[in-house]
Fold this protein.
Amino acid sequence: LAQAILAQDSTSGHLSSVVTQQTSTMASFGKARSPSRRSAAVVAVGVAALFVCFQSPATFSQPPAPASRRLALEGAIAGAAVSLIEPAWAKTLSGSDGPIITKDEVLKVQDSWKDAILTISKEYLANPTGEQFKNAAKAAAGELYGYGEGDVLFKPTKAKETPFRVKGEGALSYFIGYDAIKPAGFAEDKGFAINGGKGWKAVRFENSQISTYGDIALAQGEYFFTDFDDKTAKVEYSFGYKKTPEGKLKIVLHHSSIPYSR
């Protein structure tokens, strides 16, 4: 864009100096990591060119060429278009320069969550009074959930008396049952990951949508839990993931519910 404007207005020394100053902005545009930053760079060049091109004719040896005005307008319009690609609230949600989450990373974490449920179930069925299933649950909670990083919003499926679990022990109680960690936890919990003692043999995710906003990702859909009698329970979910500075995805939002029925 800068070269095109200079070619059209080579006789304008003032225009040349202003556009030259903006080439560094265009270099930043090429390296920008987010749509909002690229938008800002493009807008900067477009607006600068507009300002110069539509100055009073007395400022220049000749009026700006129509092509120059057109290119300047296109620069500003391009910046506006890029800014529409990412909602303004998404920039606030994702922070400034945090690590970027990809959809493939979300899918991998979902696979890890599924594997954790099946591992806890398997270890429980192998030794219901042992410690292995408890250790597997603790390891999974520490690896997958962000309780060690900050607040986690967790609303389990089968939790009535205490539906919101703001601490890690509340999540652990839900997944392996109150009897496994009492006196901590909540007496209403029967252990979802062990299916109340019956176990699970399969877990499957079906995402309706995965949206990424910098170092934050959101996913919603349905997951299916199949027991050893081949009965499948369908549950609806919303997950929120945040990438840590070390590059690990942590669950910071988990809401599950049984599908609505009249």
Notes: The longest strand covers residues 202-213. The radius of gyration is 28 Å. Residues 103-126 form the longest helix (24 residues).
